[in-house]
Specification:
binds ligand ME8; 4-stranded antiparallel β-sheet; 18 strands; alpha/beta; single chain
Length: 526
């Protein structure tokens, strides 16, 4: 991909009925890695995240906690959801709350447009509603309950009974969009990814879409319909619109035109909302559909989807307090194939931290810089003529940059890590094989020693750039220690797609000392 393109990436906006767990953090990190990659590449990048604050689930939680819904959401956003972004080093450009005026006002405009265009009508609805999902369920979505709910039908996701609702509602003519959606999926095969998610969505839409109930009148915690204030808009209809209200819809058309369409990163649990309902809403309003919807897999703990309601939730800072945010980010992006489910375990995290980060990357960085200090007084030496072993390193780096960029373009984040890690492995092998410590003992090998350490330092420089989207803190430290100009993450450093060009560290550059990038962790699962 050439530099300069626009890349607008979003996460779901999360329900603030509870505090975040590592499943939410996982989505945040994935979107952030993509954003940082594109930013370091010079693409016009915008990352949006935020919170979903209306609806019955939040209202009930607030009431149960003796707070008004507004007090509750303010408390949770400030005490838990915004701090999450610092805990895991998220570089979002904007944070939208569905209680923001910019959102509420422009959701109303969107609704009015659809109403005026004849896409909304009144009707009656009776069905089973899961408040946990904030969704009407079909019988096929329900399973037999166990334990206290034995004998009842429960939501397959929340394992709790559904509620029978019978209401007069407003409906969105979603059935009109069955064929336009199928045509769009066909014309744009990458619209829903990964492939398994796409197939599921296409099969679902092929059965024909029903119209969608888009209002509720039995409670009032939501955005009132502009033509009938006795109804609030259905929380999902409200929430999906965040992606355009944050980008200027209804009040800054220029901004919208420069950002939209977006790449949406979501968990597969909410794929249909994003890949079916959302593009149908946009088609009705005459707004371009998203660039892409990517449904990633679930983090499993003990074989079950991690969730607060099933008490399998792990807080992100349970991990970062011990391992740091870089290790958190690296672990989840490398250990799990993006798009598939993955099991979390402390043992696996701990083992990878030690083998890959401390011994693999961290040790490579510290011993290379220590040798430059010891043998060349801390000044990066000029390389002599390159031998095939040195050239092999140059080639590995060039190939890795191209492969990683192509993987990011496909949103195959774990493949990007694998491509970059080929450099770590190649450099460690190179140093073992070239034995700079032996070369240093023989004055006749001075030029060879210079070439080896120059090559290794250039390789480290490329690694700092390529790994900066994954591990912003460690790579900053490494970049500073390398003494190179510019600041990583700000594009004054090397553009990521050019990380393979060689001789980027001016000869004579003084390297600094480097503290251990990944210190030994005494208490970790030992
Ligand atoms: O659905 N593994 O919010 P939500 C991986 N407000 N990801 C997980 C996960 C797990 N075990 N658990 C949660 C909502 N997630 C709506 C979204 S968007 C317009 C409105 C992540 O708080 C994953 O991204 O229930 C999932 O899709 C999202 O959290 C659900 O968050």
């Amino acid at each position: 991909m050439s530099a300069g393109k626009s890349f607008y990436v979003t996460t779901p906006i999360f329900y603030v009925n509870d505090v975040p767990h590592i499943g939410h953090a996982y989505t945040e990190v994935a979107a952030d890695v993509l954003a940082r990659w594109h930013r370091q590449a010079g693409d016009r990048t915008w990352m949006l995240t935020g919170t979903d604050e209306h609806g019955e689930k939040i209202l009930r939680t607030a009431t149960a906690n003796g707070a008004t819904p507004q007090e509750w959401v303010d408390r949770l956003v400030e005490s838990a959801w915004k701090p999450l972004l610092d805990t895991i080093d998220i570089s979002n450009d904007d944070f939208i709350r569905t209680t923001d005026a910019r959102h509420e006002d422009n959701v109303k405009k969107f609704l009015q447009n659809l109403y005026d265009a004849g896409f909304i009508y009144t009707g009656e609805y009776e069905g089973s509603y899961c408040v946990g999902c904030e969704e009407y369920k079909q019988d096929s979505d329900l399973v037999d309950g166990t334990g206290e709910f034995a004998g009842e039908k429960v939501c397959a996701i929340h394992s709790k009974p559904v509620e029978n609702l019978h209401e007069k509602n407003y409906f969105f003519r979603m059935s009109d969009f069955t064929q336009p959606l199928l045509d769009m999926y066909e014309a744009n095969p990458n619209f829903v990814q990964p492939e398994s998610a796409r197939n599921e969505v296409v099969q679902f839409v092929k059965q024909g879409l029903n119209d969608l109930s888009i209002s509720r009148s039995s409670f009032d915690w939501g955005i009132k319909l502009p033509w009938d204030e006795s109804h609030v808009v259905y929380v999902w209809f409200d929430a999906l619109l965040n992606y355009i209200t944050a980008a200027g819809y209804g009040y800054d058309e220029e901004k919208l035109a420069s950002l939209w369409p977006a790449t949406h990163i979501v968990g597969k649990d909410i794929l249909r909302f994003h890949a079916v309902i959302w593009p149908a809403m946009l088609m009705a309003a005459g707004v371009e559909v998203p660039h892409q919807v990517y449904g990633h897999g679930w983090l499993l703990v003990g074989g079950e989807k991690m969730s607060k309601s099933k008490l399998t939730g792990i807080a992100p800072n349970d991990i970062t307090d011990t391992f740091g945010s870089d290790a958190f980010r690296y672990y989840f992006m490398s250990a799990i194939s993006f798009g598939q489910d993955g099991s979390f375990s402390w043992e696996d995290l701990s083992a990878r931290y030690q083998a890959e980060l401390a011994n693999g990357f961290g040790n490579l960085a510290s011993r290379t810089l220590a040798m430059v200090s010891r043998y060349f007084d801390g000044v990066v030496p000029a390389a002599g003529e390159l031998t095939p072993s040195d050239k092999a390193i140059v080639d590995v780096v060039a190939a890795s940059v191209a492969e990683a960029d192509a993987a990011i373009e496909r949103l195959a984040i774990h493949e990007a890590v694998t491509s970059i890690w080929a450099i770590v492995d190649a450099l460690n092998g190179y140093i073992t094989e070239q034995e700079p410590w032996a070369l240093a003992k023989d004055p006749a090998q001075a030029e060879r020693l210079a070439t080896v350490l120059n090559t290794a330092t250039e390789g480290l420089r490329a690694l700092a750039v390529l790994l900066s989207p994954f591990m912003p803190q460690a790579t900053h430290k490494l970049w500073d220690a390398l003494g190179v100009e510019g600041s990583l993450g700000a594009l004054t450093a090397q553009p990521i797609r050019e990380a393979g060009s060689w001789n980027q560290i001016p000869v004579g550059t003084s390297v600094g000392t480097l503290e251990a990038l990944f210190p030994r962790i005494e208490s970790a699962a030992e």
